[in-house]
Amino acid sequence: MTVSFVLRLRRAALAALLGLTSLALAACALPVNRAPVQQTYRLAATEIRTAPLPQATVIQLLPVRAAAGFQSPAMM
Prior knowledge:
Blueprint: H1 3-28, E1 40-43, E2 57-60
Antiparallel strand pairs: 1-2
């Protein structure tokens, strides 16, 4: 084995080790459980220009459903 071959092999091994290490660290950063979808938001009044609200305002977001489309009996 020549010196240049050993250096290339060493460089390839270090690159592979670096790639595997970064892949392992990236996999550890992923969340284990998926966060639930938030559908209810509470809006508080701003204190700069408006008086505080006497009651909290709650907005609930419902899922959006698509219309039947052009081929439905309602569109014919």
